[in-house]
Every structure is written in structure tokens, then in C-alpha cells.
Amino acid sequence: MYLDPQSLAPSSSPATPAPRPLRVGMIGIGTVGAGTFRVLARNQAEIAARAGRGIEVVVVCARNLARAVDVVGTGVALTNDPLLVATHPDVDVVVEVAGGSGPARDWVLAALRAGRHVVTANKALLAEHGTEIFAAARQHGVVVAYEAAVAGSIPIIKALREGLTANRIEWLAGIINGTTNFILSRMADAGLGFAEALAQAQALGYAEADPTFDIEGIDAAHKLTLLAALAHGVPLQLHKVHVEGITQLQAIDMVCAERLGYRIKLLGVARRRDDALAQGLELRVHPALLPATHLMAQVNGSMNAVMVQGDAAGSTLYCGAGAGSEQTASAVIADLVDVARLAGGAPTQHGVHAQPIAAAPAPAVLPMAATRTRYYLRVPVADAAQGCAQVTQALADCGVPLQTLLQHHEGPGGVGDLRAGQRHVVVLTQVALEADVDRALARVAGAAGVHGAAVRLRVELLA
Amino acid sequence: MYLDPQSLAPSSSPATPAPRPLRVGMIGIGTVGAGTFRVLARNQAEIAARAGRGIEVVVVCARNLARAVDVVGTGVALTNDPLLVATHPDVDVVVEVAGGSGPARDWVLAALRAGRHVVTANKALLAEHGTEIFAAARQHGVVVAYEAAVAGSIPIIKALREGLTANRIEWLAGIINGTTNFILSRMADAGLGFAEALAQAQALGYAEADPTFDIEGIDAAHKLTLLAALAHGVPLQLHKVHVEGITQLQAIDMVCAERLGYRIKLLGVARRRDDALAQGLELRVHPALLPATHLMAQVNGSMNAVMVQGDAAGSTLYCGAGAGSEQTASAVIADLVDVARLAGGAPTQHGVHAQPIAAAPAPAVLPMAATRTRYYLRVPVADAAQGCAQVTQALADCGVPLQTLLQHHEGPGGVGDLRAGQRHVVVLTQVALEADVDRALARVAGAAGVHGAAVRLRVELLA
User: Fold this and answer.
1) Count of CB contacts below 8 A, A vs B?
2) For the Homoserine dehydrogenase catalytic domain, which residue ranges apply (chains A, B) (predicted)?
3) N or C: which end of chain B has fewer CB within 10 A?
């Protein structure tokens, strides 16, 4: 039921022949690849009508050809040579959904050099090799589109690149890793410890057998690298992102955060600073306390959300599924339709997908010590009263203003066990400098009566 | 600091001259027009870099020329003739931000017939005359872009038209009128009655002196008409939208909804039905009970939010400021940048902005009687026990299954006054047919001991 939109309009221009279908070569037919193929097939008519031309997968590269046949049937050419797909003469656009930042770089560069557009879901590849890859795309007059690389089905790349293009972006903050959001939601809502929550996540398929990339915040850092480049016009600088994962979080911190009116999420933050103390870009991934009543704090399970503050738009929030076969496919296909609509136009049209160009020198990424925010500190102490005095003295001596102080007790059986156990001094500061908090924590560590490593979490008010 | 992106890339194509700026003619320099002018000026360099060319306002039409000079200065041609701007030889795109669905139709059609693109914030115009206007755009090979017509700075039109283009949209639901959201938030959070909350809204500038369009749901209906056409491929059918405003809501309903675990919002719903009872599209604007824990229920004040359920993407949620000078300007300029990027390409590129074409026959809009949802009913009664019996009997006789029943008392001083006053039977049904609820309410109205008109509100679970 493919309709040519041209045929519906009495047009003043001479009759144009129906554009031929956009021919797609896919590298990878796993979760995302299979989802892409399925949705392209199922919604073929709608997609063709909206794109103005059909979109056809003509060749697929898979490691497991038998599995590939199960997904794509017998009408599609199959190969296990990615470079064959990347440079195939009958392909207009290469969909790279195999993942990994090693060989994928070669495949993508080969495709670009052969004059093929590339649509990818590969955040690791672009975070690490994006500078080279986008330059190659620009050089060869083709596009690299990556909506599927960040936040699943939420069209956040398009929102930043186009919907909010009138704005100077002041900051963005995102819950952009579903695995860790699921784990933290279970810790907060079911009182689980980290190990138990991770095990549940693995059992339910929300975490990999090797969950390192997710729980150490690396995946979130890849995605933040892409978002920051788009929003703030900075180069892709993965190595400059300060990264802390969630492995040090304990149930007691979820409980204390809640008592104080907050909820802990793994957050990626890219925030412009232009004050007396620093001018540049904060770029950091770490667990953060969000006000419990804020919408972002209530994005739970494996959902993702990105909030953006623009100077004209004010703040906008985008939430949805951060991963999933068809969810990610939705983003891949949105990019394919964009490419289809390019219709071989001049490179200027490709400007939409080119690496963002900053109009002014891009802000420099600030060192972590220059971060300015509120802090949650938890210090295990031998004696509660002495501990309070020592902690408050250290904060005062280092210029860290205090907001709230709690004395928290946890019996041997954990939170809620009233038997004699470990006491903690829990502090919420006012706005302070990271460097000053570092010094205060160093003093606290040396204080008599402090019983172990202090925990420091940053607060994000999303304002 | 305008950078030509072409100059940064060693390109294999012959050197292309820098594209000339996109020339804009504005009709209207009020709240949205002034905001647009200001943001274009302030973020000129960024916008030019992202668009690949400058964007210049060359002529402005205003009723009050003195006011216009205050906003645009002396470097821009001024006129009070909209048709002069619409057909101006030095204008590429006409920005229509004067509003109203009368003369604006003539200006927009004149612009399109003169081969000018149009960017508009005018939801009333498009809801009423969009069919004719989009047809004229298609006929003349130009675009009509309307991001600013719905949900302020939230790029929802782009999300539906492009970001979610891979999907068959199952339903969408939106809080798309900031005036009524502000009023309902005050009623729920401060316990105000409708009149008092409206007065506060007017005093704070969230409601007009004549608030009819907003409080009667008409503005929301205009916007829903546009969203539904885009999402479901139906023609623009404003006259088929069932519209109920918020003027009948009382503080007691906010209280009862909260007791039941819900929060009341004015909602626009476009939901596909494909079950044994109905096949088509529910299209309705009315106050609705949302589960209090749902993110949508916590979108308060004058904020807007739209939730979309796609068959591949799952559900995505978009929140932000629904109105405001620079917020709406952000959307106008996003459209201008899209037009700038078209760079005079073939009509196929314009397909992105053309009226959506359905690949299959568009679903028919269902009569309201076919609506299937849960209901909140409040019946004022003389005697609580007899009232309960009468109401439950009427529901049972009409096939409306009951979920929860409360007896609610309100003394003469209103909610919380324990002196003898008015008793109400409050019911939450399970899923029921509107037609059956109509019949049940008709029976209840005739029952002895019923003390006044029953209130019926629909529940929306957003699932």
C-alpha cells in the first residue's frame, strides 16, 4: 500500500518519477538489528508514506547465518563479511548495530569512504572514535546518524540537534543507563543491597553477565559525551568525563537520602559554568541525589530521561524506554527516514547530521575540583556526639556551609535493626566547591573517632 | 561570528559559495513575535552555524508601529499591511504570529500562493482551515511548519512527525493548555474553588481577561486536532472532537479524586480502538482522573506534557513550558532552521512538513458513546444509604461494573466542614462503555433521593 505523496498533489512542477527505495545494508542482526528488520517489515507502508520512498534491507551481515535466516527469511542476501556490506554497490546506507568500538570503526569508516551514509546505535564507537568518524562523513558528504545510540526510543538527539536549535543550552542532565536505574530503583523501593539488586537485574535481563560497562558508569559516560558535544558544541571528549558508577552505594544511603527528601539516580550532567569561580563545562557521571518530588526522581525501573535547560525554551524533559529491541529500532528507523528524505540533496542538507559546529570557541571542560553543587556526606563514627563535632569543625574550617545534619544509626542486621551497631553522621551541605569538600573529607578521614571511609554523593536540584 | 560549515570540511565537491541568509517576514510582533525577534538576535551566531546560513528578519507587520520599533529597532522595514509581508519579494518565509483564525487565513494563503514557506504558532487557524492550508502548501511546493502551535517549547510536532516516524501510534494523551493546568493545580493543591483559582490565574497572567477558549477546552481541542492528524493520519477534524472544559469542576471533586488516588487534569486524548465493540479513533478533550503516582499527574502549574504510545517505541513522555514569549519563540525558530536547511531542495524534502499522508484509510472518529474507559461519578443524595442502593442498582441494571464506592460528606462550609450538609455517593467504575454510563446516569437522575446533577469524569490510566 505504498503511496507516492507526489501523486496526491496537483503539482505545478513537471511529473517526477517515484523515487526508488532507500537500500539498506545491515551489520548485525542481534537484538537491535532484528528489531529494526521486524519493525521495517511490520510498518512498511506507513514508513514508506512518511519517508516518501520505500526502505528496503538488501543485505545483512551476521556472525550466525542460521540465526539471521530465522529473522530475515530468504529474500535478503546474507554474508558474514561486514566490509562487504559496508562497501556494497547496491547499498545507500549502512546500519551498524553490531556494537563494540574495535572492528566497528573499520566498518564505519569503510562505509563512509565508499560514500555510504551510516546509521548506528554504537555509543562506545562514537564516544571513542567519533571525531575521526564525523570528519570522514563530512569529507565524503554523507551523514552519520546516531539517535539509537542514546536513550532508546526517546528522540533526544533530534530534540537537541533540531527541536532546541534556537537555544544556548545551559545544562542537561540524564538518567541514561537503564541497568543502573533498575538496580537503584530496586535498592530504594525494596531496600535491597547493591549485590542483591544487581543479581535481580541480571536474572530479569536488565543487566549483562558482565555488567561492568553499566554499573561503573562507562556506558552513561559514552552517551553523555555525545549529548554534551551536541548541546554545548564541545568536541567529543570521553576521557574528560568524570566517571563514578554505583558500586559503592549501600542501602543505608538510599534510606538516608529518602529521609532527607531525595532519591538517588546515576546521572550524567553537562552544565555550563560562567561565574567568578569557573568558566567552562562541568562534565560528569556519578550517583546523585535528586529532590524526591522532581519528575526525574520518579523515572524508575529501566526507563531513561533527559532534562535540558535552554535559554529560550526553559526546561524540557524527555522520558521513555532506554533500551529494548523495538524501542531502539524505532530510533534506528527514524534516522533511516531522515536519510531517505535527504533524497540525494546537496551536502548542506547533510548539515543536520554533521558534527555540531560551535559558533564560538567551545567551552573547556572543567576539572572536577571546580564543580559547584550541594553534597551529601556520610561519615561512620565511633561516638555520635564527638563525630558530629568533628565533622562540623572540618566543614567549617574548609568553607563548606552546612544545611542539614542527621545522626543515623544502623544495627548489625542493617537499617531498621535497633541493636547497638554503627553510627553515622550524615550531612547535606549548601552549595560548595568540590575542592573544599575534598579538603574537608581529608580532614574528617584523619579525625579521631571516624570509623571508615566517608561517602560523598552530589546533589542535583535540576534547576 | 558566522561560520560557514562548508569551509571547515575539505570537501570533494567544488567550492560552493556561502548560502545567502534566509529572509523572514513577520506578521505580528506581540508576545511570540517579540520573543522570536529577540532570540534570533541574541543567539544569532549559534543559529546561523546550525542552520548553515543566517536567518534575518527583513520586514515586520504590526498593528502598533511604535511598539514594533521598540522591539525591532530601526534596521527592519515596518508596515501595518500583512499582505505586503505575505507576498513581499524579498521574503523567503513568512512567520505568522498574529493569531486568530479569520484574516490570518488570507495572509497565510497569500504567502503560500506567492511561493513563500510559512511558519506559524496559530493552532486555531490550522485546526479550522488546515486542510485548505496544507493543500495549498503542497500545491505550491512550500511548507507550513507549526511546532509553535502546540505545547510551547516542547518539540512535540517534530517528535511525532520524525522521531517516532517508525511507529504505528496507538494513543497519545496531552496536558496541552497551561491556563487550565494552572487552575486545576491550584484547586488541587490549595483547595480553591474554580472561580477563585481562575481569578488567581488571571491576576498572575496565566489566564486571559476572557478565558473562554482556555477554560472551555477549545484551545486544547485545536491542539489535539493537530496532534491527532499527525499521529494517526486522520484529516483535521476539529468539529469531531468531543470537548468538555473545566468550568463544572468543584473543589469536592479534587478532594474525592485524591482520596481515590487520582489527580484531575484537562486531557486531550486520541486513542485508536480496534476491539469487538469499536474500530476507529477516540478523539476527546475533557477533565480526566490520572493515577496520582503517574508522571503526567505531577506535571503542574502551567506546564504541558504529551505522552505517546507507539507500537515499537513503547511510551515516551515530553514535558515543558506550554507557553511564554521565548518558549514559543524557541519552537518558531526550530521551524525556521528546518526551512533554512531545505536550501531550495526538491519538493520531496518538503514532504517532512506536508500534511501527513496515511498509508491506509484513516480510522474514523468514533462517536463519544463508543468511548470505553473507567469513570468517576459523584451523585449528590438526600440519604446516604438509600443513595448508595439507588446508584449501585442503576449501574448494575446498565452493565456498568463498579470498582469502588465512597460515601462523601461536605458540610455547609465546604470540604472538611463536619456540620450536617450535603452527602454524595462517589463511584469509581471498572472499564465501561460511555453509552452504558449515560443510561445509568439517566436512571440515577430519575431516582428518588438524588439531590442534583451527577458529575461524570473519565479516568485515564495512560497505559
Assistant:
1) 289
2) 155-337
3) C
- B-chain CB neighbours of A16 within 8 Å are 346-348
Tell me how far apart the alpha carbons of residues A88 and A196 are, in angstroms, rounded to a whole number.
Answer: 48
Closest CA to B387 of B407, B412, B411: B407
What per-residue confidence (pLDDT) applies to B101? 86
Q: State which residues of chain B have pLDDT below 50.
A: 1-13, 345-352, 354-355
Nearest CA distance, A84 vs chain B (angstrom): 24
Please indicate whether residue B223 is annotated as part of the active site: yes
How many angstroms separate the CA atoms of A288 and A301, rounded? Answer: 16
Give the model confidence (pLDDT) of A234-290 as tens digits.
999 999 999 999 999 999 999 999 999 999 999 999 999 999 999 999 999 999 999
Would you state the cell numbers that stand for residue B142, as one nine-digit string? 512550500
B45, B312, B326: residue with CB nearest A327: B312
What kind of fold does domain A22-149 have according to CATH? Rossmann fold (3.40.50)
Pairing of strands B314-321, B303-310: antiparallel
Helices (H), A55-119: 65-72, 82-86, 103-113
Cα–Cα separations (whole angstroms), residue B283 to B238, B277, B280, B357, B401: 9, 16, 10, 19, 24
* Surface-to-core class of residue A276, CB atoms within 10 Å of its CB (0-12 exposed, 13-18 middle, 19+ buried): exposed
**DSSP notation for A131-188:** HHHHHHHHHTT--EE-GGGSSTTS-HHHIIIIITTTSPEEEEEEE--HHHHHHHHHHH
- What contacts B205, CB < 8 A, 6 or more positions away? none
Given this model, what pLDDT does residue B354 score? 47
Nearest chain B alpha carbon to A154: B316
What pLDDT does residue B351 have?
42
Q: Which of A153, A303, A326 best probes binding to B when mutated, by most B CB atoms within 10 angstroms?
A: A153
CATH fold of A371-459: Alpha-Beta Plaits (3.30.70)
- Residue ranges of B for the binding site? 27-34, 123, 208
Least confident segment among A296-305, A435-444, B1-10, B293-302 = B1-10
**DSSP-assigned beta bridge partners for residue A266:** A287
Please report, for chain A, the start and end positions of each structural domain, with discontinuous segments joined by +: 22-149, 156-321, 371-459
* ipTM at complex level: 0.93
Q: Are B344 and B53 in contact (CB under 8 A)?
A: no
Q: Smallest CA–CA separation between A44 and chain B, in Å?
A: 9
Size (chain A), residues: 463
**Whether the Cβ atoms of residue A351 and residue B341 lie closer than 8 Å to each other:** yes
Report the pLDDT value the prediction gives residue B347, as an integer from 0 to 100. 39
Across the range A139-162, mean pLDDT stands at: 96
**Whether the predicted pLDDT of A9 surpasses 50:** no
CA distance A41 to A39: 5
Please name every residue paired with A269 in a beta bridge, in sequence order, or none if there are none: A173, A284
Q: What is the pTM of this model?
A: 0.94
Q: Does B313 touch chain A (CB under 8 A)?
A: yes
Instruction: For residue A278, report the phi and psi dihedrals to the nearest 5 degrees.
Output: -160, 145
User: DSSP letters of A238-275?
Assistant: GGGSEE--STT--HHHHHHHHHTTEEEEEEEEEEEEES
- What is the helix (H) or strand (E) element at residue B18, kind and residue range? none
Pick the CATH number of B156-321 from 3.40.50.170, 3.30.360.10, 3.40.50.920, 3.30.70.100: 3.30.360.10
* CA–CA separation, B423 and B30 (whole Å): 49
Q: Do B347 and A311 touch (CB under 8 A)?
A: no
| For residue A346, pLDDT beyond 50 | no
Q: Do domains A22-149 and A371-459 have the same CATH topology?
A: no
**A48 contacts B166 by C-beta, under 8 angstroms:** no
Give the relative orientation of helices A194-203 and A178-190 as an angle to the nearest 10 degrees: 120
A115 touches B: beta carbon within 8 Å: no
